[in-house]
Amino acid sequence: MSENTTPSAATANTVVQAAVEPMGAPPSPLRETWDYFKKNRGALAGLIVIAIILFLAITAQWIAPYDPILQDRSAFLKPPIWMEGADPRYILGTDAVGRDILSRLIHGAQLSVSIGVFVVILSMVAGIILGMVAGYFRGWIEVGIMRLMDIMLALPSLIMAMAIVAILGPGLENAMLAIAIVQLPHYVRLSRASVVSELNKEYVIASQIAGAGHMRQMFVNILPNCMAPLIVQGTLGISSAILDAAALGFLGLGAQPPLPEWGTMLAEAREFVGSAWWVITFPGLSILVTVLAFNLMGDGLRDALDPKMKR
Q1: CA–CA separation, 87 vs 65, rounded Å?
Q2: What's the pTM?
């Protein structure tokens, strides 16, 4: 450039060079979702709590001080370590038969997380299949499936779960199956609505013209574009499953003693509400914190995955 070039010309050349230079690559969808998610402090706090609970659940066999069903007949209803009369061996005290409450809570986290994940996987897989069949084929198939789901939604969820467990018999496996059946309509309705909204889009019509079969259309082309609301529902479904399992355990229809399930621990501690508050308080707080953490994370995922929330 010559020495006589004016400042305005130099500025114009700089603007042109900046326009010609390639722009940075846009962030990946996963990175963009994480950026929106971490702006929600409540969701981030929920994620941290869930990470801690998952760590406790995975390492329960090694970090729990004692066997959760081991009884110490010399330490009945010992209070937490900061109270008078406590046994220094038991940080959160013991229950009515001398079992360490901290160890039972840690193993209870393993049990509760397993219940939530199993229930969500079972109900989500079945719900996606039924919902996609109903939304894709429409007609009498859709009417039959959706009317059955409407009938299930018309019944109180806990009452229906109790009825199913009463038929199958009390136990943890039957309780998980009952909760999965209760949660099934939510996934069916979400899947069906997502499929119906995708059917008239250009990529579906183009693949149909290209000769794609029904199975490829449903599970290869359409399903990946329907997963965002299902992921959010699955996250919230884990908290609902944990809560329902605790309710069934409290009523004696879920996990049976001596399993350290939080609802069963509450049921065993009912008679000691006035005399030994710690026996019922710590399992109740565990349920509260876990369910709240999953709900907060689910809300954060909903906001991060919903395009309307990003505007």
Answers
A1: 14
A2: 0.83
